[in-house]
Design goal:
402 residues, Rossmann fold, single chain, five-stranded parallel β-sheet, 15 helices, eight-stranded mixed β-sheet, alpha/beta, binds cytidine-5'-triphosphate, elongated, 35% helix
């Protein structure tokens, strides 16, 4: 995707071993369509060379406030005026302290101080040893930096270069990229709570076998991500899929339709929006065997009896909160034919204001999809696009209807 097309990002590196990750971050930002201007402190140059960063960004790196390449000899002014955002990754403990005090004795801190606060956001990706991270001075500095208008992107947890294990290491380049992309998305669902179901369900026949379907969960995960990017608190109830959890989303893993029903009902009491993308099995095996069923050599096949699963969407849509307009419900319909008429009939049957139709076999497992939005006024086609793009569009449609 080109999620950062047209954006100009000034990527600042302060000194820390996480500088090696900044190379990958730079590459990822360029891949997303951004132009990247790298600025490095002298300490950062101890960890990675400007040559590497120049090659990856395709632009000469700045490192000194005395850089005479600028006709007016004011790189701190010029660089900060051109940026859509300044991202400091890694942001060292020392650099945080400098920002906090408004010090300006080298180019990067000087540029941050010179930035127009209302126009150029400052995003910080701290990278510290766990003791340094936990230190009251660091925590105090971060709180003050946030109060001064900086966006602190958080830290990762785990094995650290020093050999210790804990909080404080810099987020991975992929995570930072997602956070930066999210930062630029309009906050259409700020303050809203969104509940999403996604993926297939798995209905056991015995302890090793079961019945499932071809849903990959990609559309539901994309919707969870898009809702989070739009500023919502998002809970994702996921059937058995191995997709990574979108940044900032709370995930509850379930297996069967009944598990999904049980996990969803209490969450629906807290949500403002419910989006049911899961391909829930309509039936489950009535009497799953507690032990693995064995062939007896006679050629006789087992006879399976089925019972109907609860309808998660219909149950939520008929709750008192949904009927009172406190919970906006969106259904999906995976059809194989007659999409428009089937989807409209399903919308009415499920009792939801908005239903999203798609042709199941054409989209299951794919990274793109085409949608049909169906409401009481009729239907509207959304042409084939990447699922994340469609998810953002759907989020905007929902925000419009609230
Ligand atoms: N759904 C649900 N619980 C079920 C079945 C479906 O929450 N037990 C939701 C799906 O997540 C989707 C919508 O209902 O949002 C429609 O799902 P779909 O499988 O297309 O429809 P069905 O209700 O199964 O109807 P049919 O089998 O007639 O197509």
């Amino acid at each position: 995707m080109n999620d950062l097309a047209g954006k100009h990002i000034v990527l600042g590196l302060s000194g820390g071993i996480a500088c090696y990750k900044a190379a990958e971050l730079c590459r990822a930002l360029v891949k997303e369509g951004a132009t990247v201007q790298v600025v490095m402190t002298e300490a950062a140059e101890q960890f990675i060379t400007p040559v590497t960063m120049q090659a990856l960004s395709g632009r000469p790196v700045y490192g000194s406030q005395w850089d005479s390449r600028e006709p007016n000899n004011m790189p701190h002014i010029n660089l900060s005026r051109q940026a859509d955002a300044i991202v400091i990754a890694p942001c060292s403990a020392d650099f945080m302290a400098k920002l906090l005090h408004g010090r300006a004795d080298e180019l990067l801190s000087l540029m941050c101080l010179a930035r127009p606060v209302d126009k150029v956001p400052l995003l910080l990706a701290p990278a510290l040893n766990r003791e340094m991270w936990a230190h009251p001075a660091t925590q105090r500095n971060m709180a003050q930096l946030a109060a001064d208008g900086a966006h602190v992107l958080g830290v990762g947890s785990g094995f650290q270069a020093c050999g210790e294990t804990g909080d404080g290491r810099m987020l991975e380049p992929e995570q930072l990229t997602q956070d930066i992309v999210a930062f630029f998305q309009p906050k259409l669902l700020a303050g809203k709570r969104v509940l999403v179901t996604a993926g297939p369900t798995f209905e056991a026949i015995d302890p090793v076998r079961g019945i499932t379907n071809l849903s990959s969960g990609k559309m539901g995960f994309a919707i969870a991500r898009a809702a989070r990017e739009a500023g919502a608190e998002v809970t994702l109830v996921a059937g058995p899929v191995s997709l990574p959890t979108p940044r900032g989303v709370v995930r509850i893993d379930v297996r069967s339709a009944q598990d999904m029903f049980d996990a969803t009902q209490p969450q629906a009491l807290l949500a403002d929006i419910f989006i049911a993308t899961a391909a829930v099995a309509d039936w489950r095996v009535a009497n799953p065997s507690a032990k693995k069923m064995k062939k007896d050599g006679s050629g006789k096949v087992p006879e399976l009896a089925f019972t109907e699963n609860p309808d998660i969407l219909a149950a939520v849509a008929s709750s008192s909160r949904a009927r009172a307009g406190e919970l906006f419900c969106v259904g999906f319909a995976a059809e194989s034919h007659d999409l428009a008429s089937n989807a409209q009939a399903k919308r009415i049957r499920k009792g939801v204001p908005l239903l999203v139709g798609n042709i199941g076999p054409a989209t299951f497992g794919a990274d793109d999809n085409a949608l049909l939005l169906v409401d009481e006024h009729g239907s509207q086609e959304v042409p084939r696009a990447a699922k994340l793009e469609l998810a953002r569009l759907l989020v905007a449609e929902i925000a419009n209807r609230l």
